[in-house]
Amino acid sequence: MFQVMIVDDEEIIRDGIANSIDWLTHDINIVAQAGNGKEALVKARKYQPNIIITDISMPIMDGITFIKIYLNEFPDTKVIFLTGYDEFSYAKEAVNLHIHEYILKPINAEELTKSVIKITEQINIEKCYLEDHEYKTNLIKENLPILQSRFLEGLVKGEYTKRDLIEIKAAKLNIYIAGPHYQIFLVAIDNFALMFDGVIENESGLLRNSIHKIIQEIVDSFFKGTIVIFGYNTFLGFVNQAIPGKSLIEMFIKIKNKVYQYHRISLTFSYGKIVSELEKLPESTLQAYNALRKKIHKEKGSIISYEEIEMNFQTDPVIYPSKDEKELLEALRMMDKVNLKLELEKIFSNYSSFCDSQALIKNNCLKLIFISIGVLEEFDINIEKYLTRSYQPHIEIEKFDTLKSLKTWLFNSFELFVEVLIKSKNRKYKKIINYSLKYIKENFNKDISLETIATKAYITPGYFSKIFKLETKQNFTEYLNRYRIEKAKKMLKQIDLKIYEVSENVGYHDYKYFSYNFKKITGYSPQEYRNRS
């Protein structure tokens, strides 16, 4: 409802305006009346009407003086002047007061009603405009970080080429671009995924916002610049440099120390070169990004210069030699922690020297993990049975963003695999050994070999040989010979069997070889043993 105040020194006119028109049907309420400007000023300040209908010529304080004072305090108030014909030229002099309507006395009710309704419509239009403007302003204010981020992302990618358009957008988003020199830097939160494993997104978002605020405050104390959240755990900094070469390092150290003080979190920094044209920002950005990629070779909390990208890192995919892979898996199968560690050191040394692609290194690490899980499966081992949680290496690996942390994680993973193998070896070994002993017992009189049993047990001959000796304390050939000779000793007691027949019955088709092994094991020749029996 619109609030209206009537001011006239003639009471009959005030009453006529107030009572002769059905204002309520037009959503209008008469909130106050006054007989002169001085009284009106007091009441207007109290009720703050939307519209004031006032006479010009009044005692004590005239209408123009009253309105001048009041509009100075409440400039949005709409005013209708009531004036006699002889005062009209005088009223026109008040045009600089932005009076909305002039109505000549005697007052026509219909004309006055139309004027007031016209003004109420204007108030509604202005209100809608103000609400819309306020909404858009608040929307921009609330989403300013997102809008700034989008703009800067486009700027550093070279999507904006017209300087005037850049200036207009930058001004709207409170981004200073006067230069004359510019520089891009990146800030990455170290081990962000590790810290927030299982934590709700809202919590990690609050942390990002807090760190963003700290960085922006410190940047403001050094440069005119803007910081935006640039991805999952990274911030992009755009700064104007008045003097080329002004160091970022001091600013980085201050940011690093303050963030650690408040959050106990480490940050890694990288930066590109200084440029003198906005069009060259993509070059500075690419340098900062490539420098940050080297984070995998650094300690947490490093400051990495774009100049380091001049190092001759190999850009083609580097796959470690299959020989290293085979030796690693063999060390795992044999639960040889010493050689296992040596092979992993060899692989990571290769990464350190020839590869700076974090994605490629992580993919190769995952490959090692998954083929090692395949080794465990050879032993019928399900790794998750030995853990209190679901084993998801493809998720876990994202928690580590330096070569050192990746190596530690991979070493720990392989130590876990070895422990699991050790825990399950007795069951698996016994199953293999029991099978092989049974096979020897049933087939000792045939041509059997280590390779034959290994094939039937679905394992490699070398692996079978090692675990056979580990479990029986004898190598396969020695065990087979001793088993055959024990059988031969019993058969030699049977007088009806010739010695060469005993030799063939226990699997020796070469009599001389049988005699050699028999004497080696018993200390007697087959004939001497029979004679003693």
Mean pLDDT: 81
Share of β-strand residues: 5-15%
Largest sheet: 5 strands, parallel
Give the % helix.
Answer: 55-70%
**What structural class is derived from the secondary structure elements?**
alpha/beta
Structural features, described:
- The protein has 533 residues and is α/β, with parallel strands linked by helices.
- The chain has helices at residues 11-19, 37-47, 63-73, 88-92, 109-142, 144-156, 163-172, 192-195, 201-222, 249-263, 281-293, 322-333, 337-354, 358-378, 393-396, 403-443, 450-456, 461-472, 476-492, 499-505, 511-522, 526-532, and strands spanning 2-7, 28-34, 51-55, 78-83, 101-104, 181-189, 224-229, 234-241, 267-271, 303-305.
- The strands form 2 sheets. A 5-stranded parallel beta sheet has the order 2-1-3-4-5, with helices on both faces. It has a 5-stranded mixed beta sheet with strand order 7-8-6-9-10, with helices on both faces.
- Helix 9 packs antiparallel against helix 10.
- The chain starts with a strand and ends with a helix.
- Residues 312-321 have low confidence and may be disordered.
